[in-house]
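REQUEST FORM: STRUCTURE PREDICTION
Request ID: SP-0412
Submitted by: Lab K.M.
Chain count: 1
Length (residues): 70
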Amino acid sequence: MVRHGYPMVYRPDVVRFLELREVDGALRQKVEMRDRAGTYHLLDYEMIDTEAGWKIDAVRYLGAGPGIGA
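STATUS: Completed
RESULT:
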């Protein structure tokens, strides 16, 4: 699913974790990734704490562009 639905997440060239915030009681982690072609992508991960540890509950794609998070 990740390889086809979110190709920029599969083996990115650069990953940078941005702000972690609480939205309506849920924790969201904003992440900037650069794919192997050099394009930056911004994603918002909603995280949940489970007995097995933190898991991704949802992902929102926020956009792409050169140096989007700069």
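NOTES: The chain is about 5% helix and 60% strand.
Reviewed by: T.R.
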